[in-house]
Write a structure and sequence with these properties.
2 strands; two-stranded parallel ribbon; mainly alpha; 91 residues
Length: 91
């Protein structure tokens, strides 16, 4: 187990924590392939999305609006979309 400083940005801590999670789930026999990984906007980076996809998971990350050049117009309500997706996956 590694202990990290709490004053670091979430997205910089994510790769190490995510790789540890993937190693742990592999050791105990849990297959997360094609599972959605839901994260808040603090984790919204291209590098994190590539890392998640590389492990066969689906990134569901709320966009960080501060990093956008243009405002998002007509953006769907992410909570509704995620709940519908979860519902559809269970059916």
């Amino acid at each position: 187990m590694r202990i990290e400083s709490v004053n670091k940005r979430d997205s910089t801590l994510f790769p190490g924590a995510f790789n540890t999670l993937m190693e742990f789930t592999q050791r105990i026999g849990i297959d997360l392939q094609e599972s959605a990984l839901t994260l808040d906007s603090g984790f919204d980076s291209q590098e994190n999305k590539v890392l998640i996809k590389a492990h066969g998971l689906i990134p569901a990350i709320y966009p960080n609006r501060r990093n956008m050049k243009k405002p998002i117009r007509n953006m769907p309500n992410w909570k509704i979309c995620l709940s519908k997706r979860s519902f559809e996956a269970k059916v």
